[in-house]
Amino acid sequence: MAKLTMVQALNLALRQEMEKDDRVIVLGEDVGRDGGVFRVTDGLIDLFGENRSVDTPLAESCIAGMSIGMALYGLRPVCEIQFSGFSYFCLHQIESHASRIRWRTQGRLSVPMVLRAPYGGGVRALEHHSESREAFWAHIPGLKMVIPSGPRNARALMISAIRDPDPVIFYEPKAVYRAFREEVPEEEETMPLGKAHFVQEGKDITLISYGAMMRPTLEAGAELKKKDGVEAEVIDLLTISPLDDVPIVESVKKTGRAVIIHEAPRSFGPGAEIISRLMEKAFYYLEAPIARVTGYDMVIPLFSKETFYLPNAQRIVRAAREVLGA
Amino acid sequence: MPRSKIGLPYTVEHLSILNERGEVDKSLEPDISEDLLLNLHRAMLLGRRFDERLLSLQRQGRIGTFAPITGQEASQLGGVAALLPSDYFAPSFRETAAQIYRGAPMEAIILSFGGYNEGAFLVKEGNDLPVAVPVSSQVPHAVGIAWAIKYRGKKDVAMTFFGDGGTSQGDFHEGMNFAGVYQIPVVFVCQNNHWAISVPRSRQTHSKTIAQKAIAYDIPGIQVDGNDILAVYSAAKEAVDRARSGGGPSMIECVTYRMMMHTTADDPKRYRKNEEVEDWKKRDPLDRFQKYLKDKKLLSDQKIEELEKEIKDEIQKAVEHAEELMKKYSDPLQMFEHVYAEMPPYLKEQREEFKKEQSETGKEASHG
Q: What is the pLDDT along chain B (368 residues), one digit of tens a residue?
């Protein structure tokens, strides 16, 4: 097993799927010769040629729309939008068509495509390069919204996303891209979409997060254990939509307490849906109000202040202590 | 250093073969088999009569809103007539006659306009895309299909339709640009019907023609008399043949006219003069084609009368069948299907919740 960064792990997933299946095509701005601005598609053009690692003109809506057409012809396009902040040009194609063609044709046609985009703060970037707007996509029926948190699950989820019969938005936490390495097996590994994952067992409180926020969440869990002797159960959503509420409900029935952590703005964010599910399915087990540690309801500030905006381990620990003390 | 001219020897061609009096330019007359000529005539007539019937169904409240095609029969049928059944057709929402010509059952269209998703059940095969309502959003799909055709080394062609209003959209320009860059087998057909609901063609673009938009992307573009099916077919055939033989994309502007309202929810009297409509009546695509076919001895008044009756019966049967199907497809549980390949657990829960609601409602009703 090699120790890989998330960028390398995603590259491995794409390479292996492209080797196995000539329907898999990567396309987008600078994905070919340049290998993508984050190098996720690095070297694919040398292995598979410019017909499978395709540089497109600079027009995100048409990249998404063209991917829909490719999928309708029977290919498995994986398009890259350079930053999620530019993916809203695609919202119209994905909302109006990719997510609906199966429904519109009552199953005659489908759109098995993946739209990849790096999302989130923490890399000291320009405006439009740091936001976390997964809720836009998660609100669309017919669409899947996936966010990995580390190299190994990124690789496994990417393979599953490519093979999925439905369109998948795949947000990659750019703060994690090169932040750490994990053992990633060379042999194929997949993970089912629509399944949340227990990362750590615990009995006192449930911490629920995903993507780049998994690291501060786990840090907070360690801190709570060390300083307070609290055993936190930690859940990594991995798929935002379709949301898998089974492990969340199961865990909260056990712990009676929960904190939800995401860097997206709080109002109408993924946390709101998770809390609703818990109210519907675990209300009588709750010992305290559920807390949210999230981005604030604003545009993520430019980088001199982004660390004040982004949730961190201290904020999570403080929220957890309040929930535990209640 | 000096300010100099870059020699771009561009002009825009206009093609007209059958004029509004039904006179044909023999030197340009395309070689179309008698069968195809008669099929096209039948499809035009059927398209017109189906439109009229849909309008009456809508006015009676038996179906919902729809977009009539009357006046645009030649510009859409001339286009798709150049395709093979195995080719790909990506329509907007004003190509009903072309959809029927390509094999869509009239029942499917009536069911859809009647508010039944189940209309899609009746379209079991074929490569055609369903209607796309957001204007020009279908253009990139045709581009993606054409890209895939070229990637697979196939000889298929993709053809997409949009209106003059659609040429203001980014997706139109982006699609044309991508197609030019990749040199893929796609044909862009603009039905310039002069009106985007209430906004006239002159307020969509300052360009003299729509065909000239192709120049910017360096792909062949031509303007044709869109009410002249011979001209539309000739231009489409040339474009489709070019695409099939590896010659890349083309664009055709069909100059036609929306004789009716934008949709049945629209009242054109608010924004256009009746004289304009009357003027376009003289350029009717069906009248001139019938005269042409009569001159060729392929059609007579008696044959037209027989055909009218045959079509009327066919439409009547389709309406009756569609209304039977509406009764058959009354189960609201169907609405939960085909959101995903596999229904997510929470949607199953919502379906159960809905079933329960329905049975409660039923009980309340039976207890008065």
A: 789 988 887 899 999 999 999 999 999 999 999 999 999 999 999 999 999 999 999 999 999 999 999 999 999 999 999 999 999 999 999 999 999 999 999 999 999 999 999 999 998 878 899 999 999 999 999 999 999 999 999 999 999 999 999 999 999 999 999 999 999 999 999 999 999 999 999 999 999 999 999 999 999 999 999 999 999 999 999 999 999 999 999 999 999 999 999 999 999 999 999 999 999 999 999 999 999 999 999 999 999 999 999 999 999 999 999 999 999 999 999 999 999 999 999 999 999 999 999 998 888 877 75
Angle at A270 between CA A29 and CA B348, to 5 degrees: 100
Q: Enumerate the β-bridge partners of residue B189.
A: B161, B252
- B144 CA: distance to closest CA in chain A (Å): 4
Interface predicted TM-score (ipTM) over 0.85 = yes
Q: Exactly one of B10, B21, B271, B338 is catalytic; which is it?
A: B271
Q: CATH class for domain A197-325?
A: alpha beta
Alpha helices for chain A (secondary structure H): 6-20, 44-48, 60-72, 88-93, 101-104, 134-138, 151-163, 214-223, 246-255, 270-282, 306-309, 313-325
**CATH number given to A2-184:** 3.40.50.970
- Chain B contacts to A (CB-CB under 8 A): 88, 90, 117-118, 120-121, 123-124, 129-130, 132-134, 137, 139-149, 151-152, 158, 170-171, 174-175, 177-178, 181, 337-341, 344-347
| Domain boundaries, given as residue ranges, for chain A | 2-184, 197-325
Query: Residue B262 catalytic?
Result: yes
